[in-house]
Amino acid sequence: MSRVGKNPVEVPSGVEIAVKGRLVSAKGKLGQLEFEATDDVAIEVADGKVTVTPVNKSKQARAMWGTARSRVQNMVTGVSDGFTRELEINGVGYRAAVQGKSLNLQLGYSHDINFPIPEGISITCSKPTAITISGADKQKVGQVASEIRSFRPPEPYKGKGVKYAEETILRKEGKKK
C-alpha cells in the first residue's frame, strides 16, 4: 500500500487543475505544467482536492500510485510557489555572472563557460559566488542545477568547485611528509 498515494493533493486558491483522460494540467501564477499519467492510475478532481487511485492491484499500479500523486503535488506547488536551488562556488578566482540569456562561469579553466538559461528557468547571482536557480518545474530546476554543478564538482581536498548550498563535502587529509 502506498502511504503517499492515499493522501489527496490540496489545490490552493489561484491554481486550476484540469484532467482530460490521462493528461493532468495545472495553471497558476507562475505558469502552466502538464503531466501524462500511466494507464495504471485514475486521477479525479473534486472539492478542491486531487485524488489518485490505482486501477488494479498489480505491482506496477501500486508503484505508479505514489509516483503520480507526487508528480501532481509537485505541479501544484510549482505553479503556485515555485522551486529554488542554491549553488555555492568555492575557489580562488571562481565566479559566476548572468549576462542576458546565459550564465557566465569562470571555474579555473582556460576559457569561460557560457551556459544558456533554459525556457521557464530564472537564474540570479546575488554574489559572484552564489547562484540561485528557480522555476515552476521541479525536475527542470534540479536538472539545471545538476548540469551547472557538473562543470566543476567539488573536490575533497580543498573543497574547490560548485556545490549545492545544503551539501557538505567530505574532506580528505592531504599527503604527509
From TrEMBL:
GO biological process: cytoplasmic translation
Subunit structure: Part of the 50S ribosomal subunit.
Signal peptide: none
UniProt-listed NCBIfam families: L6_bact
Molecular function in Gene Ontology: rRNA binding; structural constituent of ribosome
Protein name as annotated: Large ribosomal subunit protein uL6
Organism superkingdom: Bacteria
UniProt organism field: Denitrobaculum tricleocarpae
Domain Large ribosomal subunit protein uL6 alpha-beta as annotated: residue spans: 11-82, 91-164
Family listed: Belongs to the universal ribosomal protein uL6 family.
Primary role: This protein binds to the 23S rRNA, and is important in its secondary structure. It is located near the subunit interface in the base of the L7/L12 stalk, and near the tRNA binding site of the peptidyltransferase center.
UniProt cross-references to Pfam families, sorted A to Z: Ribosomal_L6 (PF00347)
Keyword flag DNA repair: no
InterPro entries with a match to the protein in the record: Ribosomal_uL6-like, Ribosomal_uL6-like_a/b-dom_sf, Ribosomal_uL6_a/b-dom, Ribosomal_uL6_bac-type, Ribosomal_uL6_CS
Record's keyword terms, sorted: Ribonucleoprotein, Ribosomal protein, RNA-binding, rRNA-binding
Any one GO cellular component localisation term in the record: cytosolic large ribosomal subunit
HAMAP family from the UniProt entry: Ribosomal_uL6_B
